Amino acid sequence: MMNEYHGIVINLSQKDSSIFDGLDVIGERKILLGLLVLRKIRVAPENLEEVIVHLQTNMRDRLWWIVRSFYFHFYRGNELIIVFRKRTFRVTPDPSTWSEAVDYGRLLGIPEKQLNFFPCRLSDEEY
Protein backbone atom coordinates (compact mmCIF):
# COMPACT_ATOMS: atom_id res chain seq x y z
CA MET A 1 0.00 0.00 0.00
CA MET A 2 1.78 3.13 -1.17
CA ASN A 3 -0.49 5.57 0.66
CA GLU A 4 0.24 4.17 4.13
CA TYR A 5 2.47 5.92 6.63
CA HIS A 6 5.47 4.28 8.22
CA GLY A 7 6.76 5.41 11.58
CA ILE A 8 9.64 4.81 13.95
CA VAL A 9 8.81 4.61 17.67
CA ILE A 10 11.36 3.79 20.37
CA ASN A 11 10.13 1.25 22.91
CA LEU A 12 11.37 3.25 25.91
CA SER A 13 9.53 6.36 24.75
CA GLN A 14 6.24 4.80 25.77
CA LYS A 15 5.03 4.49 29.37
CA ASP A 16 2.93 1.41 28.66
CA SER A 17 4.66 -0.93 26.23
CA SER A 18 1.44 -2.84 25.57
CA ILE A 19 0.55 0.04 23.25
CA PHE A 20 2.59 -1.77 20.57
CA ASP A 21 0.18 -4.72 20.72
CA GLY A 22 -2.47 -2.57 19.06
CA LEU A 23 -0.17 -1.26 16.33
CA ASP A 24 0.91 -2.82 13.04
CA VAL A 25 4.60 -3.39 13.83
CA ILE A 26 6.35 -4.36 10.60
CA GLY A 27 9.95 -4.36 11.75
CA GLU A 28 12.26 -3.70 14.62
CA ARG A 29 15.89 -3.04 15.26
CA LYS A 30 17.54 -3.61 18.65
CA ILE A 31 20.46 -1.54 19.81
CA LEU A 32 22.34 -1.03 23.09
CA LEU A 33 22.29 -4.74 23.99
CA GLY A 34 18.61 -4.95 23.12
CA LEU A 35 17.55 -2.35 25.69
CA LEU A 36 16.53 0.08 22.99
CA VAL A 37 14.16 -1.21 20.34
CA LEU A 38 13.26 0.90 17.32
CA ARG A 39 9.88 -0.30 16.09
CA LYS A 40 8.74 0.45 12.57
CA ILE A 41 4.98 0.66 12.36
CA ARG A 42 2.54 0.98 9.49
CA VAL A 43 -0.55 3.18 9.72
CA ALA A 44 -3.39 3.73 7.26
CA PRO A 45 -3.96 7.44 6.48
CA GLU A 46 -7.44 7.40 7.99
CA ASN A 47 -5.99 6.20 11.33
CA LEU A 48 -2.90 8.41 11.47
CA GLU A 49 -4.21 11.23 13.68
CA GLU A 50 -5.73 8.77 16.16
CA VAL A 51 -2.48 6.79 16.37
CA ILE A 52 -0.43 9.97 16.84
CA VAL A 53 -2.63 11.13 19.72
CA HIS A 54 -2.60 7.66 21.29
CA LEU A 55 1.22 7.46 21.16
CA GLN A 56 1.65 11.06 22.23
CA THR A 57 -0.60 10.55 25.27
CA ASN A 58 1.36 7.44 26.27
CA MET A 59 4.75 9.10 25.75
CA ARG A 60 7.13 9.48 28.68
CA ASP A 61 8.30 12.94 29.56
CA ARG A 62 11.65 11.55 30.71
CA LEU A 63 13.46 8.28 31.33
CA TRP A 64 15.16 8.26 34.71
CA TRP A 65 17.64 11.13 34.84
CA ILE A 66 19.29 10.16 31.56
CA VAL A 67 16.82 11.05 28.79
CA ARG A 68 14.84 14.25 29.14
CA SER A 69 12.51 13.86 26.18
CA PHE A 70 11.54 11.70 23.20
CA TYR A 71 10.00 12.05 19.77
CA PHE A 72 8.71 9.70 17.10
CA HIS A 73 8.08 10.32 13.45
CA PHE A 74 5.94 9.17 10.52
CA TYR A 75 6.65 9.53 6.83
CA ARG A 76 5.00 8.98 3.48
CA GLY A 77 6.09 10.32 0.11
CA ASN A 78 7.02 13.95 0.61
CA GLU A 79 5.52 14.11 4.12
CA LEU A 80 7.43 13.87 7.38
CA ILE A 81 5.55 14.26 10.66
CA ILE A 82 7.72 14.73 13.75
CA VAL A 83 5.87 14.23 17.02
CA PHE A 84 7.08 15.34 20.44
CA ARG A 85 4.96 14.90 23.56
CA LYS A 86 3.50 18.40 23.30
CA ARG A 87 4.17 19.47 19.70
CA THR A 88 3.92 18.13 16.18
CA PHE A 89 5.81 19.38 13.14
CA ARG A 90 4.80 18.67 9.53
CA VAL A 91 7.80 19.01 7.24
CA THR A 92 9.31 17.20 4.26
CA PRO A 93 12.16 14.68 4.02
CA ASP A 94 14.41 17.58 2.99
CA PRO A 95 16.55 18.46 6.05
CA SER A 96 16.35 22.16 5.16
CA THR A 97 12.71 22.06 6.39
CA TRP A 98 13.58 20.60 9.82
CA SER A 99 15.10 23.62 11.57
CA GLU A 100 12.10 24.46 13.77
CA ALA A 101 11.69 20.82 14.86
CA VAL A 102 15.43 20.46 15.51
CA ASP A 103 15.46 23.69 17.54
CA TYR A 104 12.49 22.46 19.58
CA GLY A 105 14.17 19.09 20.17
CA ARG A 106 17.35 20.82 21.33
CA LEU A 107 15.27 22.96 23.68
CA LEU A 108 13.97 19.71 25.22
CA GLY A 109 17.53 18.47 25.71
CA ILE A 110 17.64 15.98 22.85
CA PRO A 111 21.17 15.87 21.37
CA GLU A 112 21.28 17.27 17.84
CA LYS A 113 22.83 14.07 16.47
CA GLN A 114 19.63 12.25 17.53
CA LEU A 115 17.42 14.74 15.70
CA ASN A 116 18.08 13.28 12.27
CA PHE A 117 14.57 11.83 11.66
CA PHE A 118 15.84 8.90 9.60
CA PRO A 119 14.48 6.97 7.91
CA CYS A 120 12.12 9.55 6.49
CA ARG A 121 11.40 7.95 3.12
CA LEU A 122 10.46 4.41 2.20
CA SER A 123 13.67 4.24 0.16
CA ASP A 124 15.70 4.96 3.34
CA GLU A 125 14.29 1.98 5.26
CA GLU A 126 16.75 -0.67 6.39
CA TYR A 127 14.43 -2.91 8.40
Task: Summarize, please.
This protein is an alpha+beta fold and 127 residues long. 16% of the residues lie in helices and 30% in strands.
Account of the 3D structure:
- With 127 residues, the protein is α+β, with helices and mostly antiparallel strands.
- It has one domain (5-120).
- Helices cover 16% and strands 30% of the residues.
- The chain is built from 2 helices and 6 strands.
- The protein has helices spanning 48-58, 99-107, and strands spanning 5-10, 24-31, 36-43, 71-76, 79-84, 88-91.
- A 6-stranded antiparallel sheet has the order 2-3-1-4-5-6, sandwiched between helices.
- A hairpin with a 3-residue loop joins strand 5 (79-84) and strand 6.
- It is globular, with a radius of gyration of 14 Å.
